Amino acid sequence: MSFLLPKPSGRQLSLGIMGGTFDPIHIGHLVTAEEACQQFKLDHVIFMPSGIPPHKDRDSVTAAEHRYLMTMLAVVTNPCFTISRLEIESKQPSYTVETVRRFYAQYGNDLELYFITGADAILDIITWKDYRDILARCSFIAATRPGYSLQKLQEVLGSAFPAVMQRIHLIEVPAMAISSTEIRRRVAMGKTIRYLTSRPVEQYIYKNGLYRYIPA
Ligand code: ATP
Ligand code: MG
């Protein structure tokens, strides 16, 4: 791990990991992470841009360094937020289970680890590599996202995998229909993206000519 976060004395370190492609990061990600940080009294939320996303088409994802820098620009002024290069520097596809193992290897058992995700991503958890190992070692904070009802989540996971539901904390974030896909689409069409992401990220996108063409 390329960095070590300061540990609070006399209690566990409480970390939230917000993983994603962040292509680009937007206010949906930021509001979700902030809400999780407040509600769960997290010491840090670590934004972790993925390297080679196992679920996404490799050629259609923007270079990791661009995604990393945009994420950095968006999180750098928030005292609770930080960023990790762990997954973008990995030569292997990014699997959550590997990330969890590395964090425990780094911090030992004095660690409370939460994964912060949108509720849409949680629905896929049972398809993740070694998901039982992941659930044994950390909890999830799942944020509602328009179009993905919490009730559906309970129905799908609750009946078939009750142990899974015990490890998932649901939070309501102000409903935002923002997605990176929509931002990329808007840039390609010459539409404004102001206020959908932070101003420095918006400027970075234009400066570097990102998202001018949507891959076929
Ligand atoms: P794309 O459209 O390219 O899939 P995305 O907007 O879904 O991008 P990701 O980087 O894929 O962003 O998502 C990272 C994490 O953030 C996932 O857990 C996802 O569920 C969550 N997330 C994305 N958008 C929102 C939103 N508007 N509100 C809450 N959570 C979100
Ligand atoms: Mg997504």
DSSP summary: helix tally: 9
**CATH fold node name:** Rossmann fold
For CATH, the homologous superfamily is named as HUPs
Oligomer: single chain
Helix-strand category: alpha/beta
Shape: globular
User: Gap between N and C termini, in Å?
Assistant: 36 Å
Features:
216 residues, alpha/beta, Rossmann fold, 6-stranded parallel beta sheet, globular, binds adenosine-5'-triphosphate
How would you describe what is shown here?
The protein has 216 residues and is an alpha/beta fold. The protein has one domain: Rossmann fold, CATH 3.40.50. The chain contains 9 helices and 6 strands; from the N terminus they run E-H-E-H-E-H-E-H-H-E-H-H-E-H-H. The protein has helices at 27-39, 64-75, 96-107, 119-122, 131-137, 150-160, 162-166, 180-188, 199-207; strands at 13-20, 44-49, 81-83, 111-118, 139-143, 168-171. A 6-stranded parallel β-sheet has the order 3-2-1-4-5-6, with helices on both faces. Strand 2 (44-49), helix 2 and strand 3 (81-83) form a beta-alpha-beta unit. Helix 2 (64-75) runs antiparallel to helix 9 (199-207). The protein is globular. The structure holds adenosine-5'-triphosphate and magnesium ion (MG). Adenosine-5'-triphosphate binds next to helix 1, strand 4, helix 4 and helix 8.
